[in-house]
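A.,

Following up on our hallway conversation. Structure tokens first:
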């Protein structure tokens, strides 16, 4: 994993547990800004207007921002356990909102901590966990006669095929970790005796 790589969730997921007739529904989502996080909280609240609590926690790469709320539950029994679940999974740019529909039976502080933790963990297990790394795309156009050799070269350099366009020649786009592209660029030059034009993009963050 490169220095800049981080672990996050892709898209959204949700999970539900029931503890002494109380329903705990945890919704997890990928967010990159505080505005996106607050919008997701509002969305979950709007969809669960009859719920007594909508507890949340989020961790953002943006300014290293970390926030949580117990939303009316006893202090440190809900938001903090949710945050701990996110941190334990190593996630960033992620938010969990747990909606509780009260079942009429008090759980006590220990019971609440266990329930909110379990619900958040269940949502994380349902989510698509991905590693985002600093990447580049390497683009080449080559004759069909060099196609198989190009694929073998790319695989040996740790590159993944992102796109293949077959016309008079083959146009290929490979994705790989930034700062690992030099052997591939040199390999294409040797493969074609300098006849293949290689274009490498500026580095960007992507799932890899």
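Then the amino acids I'd put at each of the 208 positions:
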């Amino acid at each position: 994993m490169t220095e800049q790589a981080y672990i996050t969730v892709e898209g959204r997921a949700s999970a539900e547990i029931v503890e002494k007739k109380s329903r705990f529904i945890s919704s997890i989502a990928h967010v990159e800004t505080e505005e996106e996080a607050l919008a997701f909280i509002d969305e979950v609240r709007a969809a669960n207007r009859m719920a007594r609590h909508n507890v949340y926690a989020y961790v953002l790469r943006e300014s290293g921002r970390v926030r949580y709320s117990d939303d009316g539950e006893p202090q440190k029994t809900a938001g903090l356990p949710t945050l701990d679940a996110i941190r334990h999974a190593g996630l960033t740019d992620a938010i969990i909102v747990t909606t509780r529909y009260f079942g009429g039976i008090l759980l006590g502080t220990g019971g609440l901590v266990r329930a909110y933790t379990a619900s958040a963990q269940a949502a994380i297990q349902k989510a698509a966990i991905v590693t985002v790394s600093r990447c580049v795309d390497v683009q080449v156009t080559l004759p069909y006669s060099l196609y198989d050799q190009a694929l073998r070269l790319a695989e040996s350099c740790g590159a993944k095929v992102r796109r293949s366009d077959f016309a008079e020649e083959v146009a290929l786009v490979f994705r790989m970790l930034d700062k690992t592209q030099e052997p591939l660029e040199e390999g294409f030059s040797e493969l074609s005796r300098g006849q293949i034009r290689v274009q490498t993009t500026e580095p960007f963050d992507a799932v890899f």
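DSSP finds five helices and eleven strands in the chain. Curious whether your intuition agrees with the design.

B.
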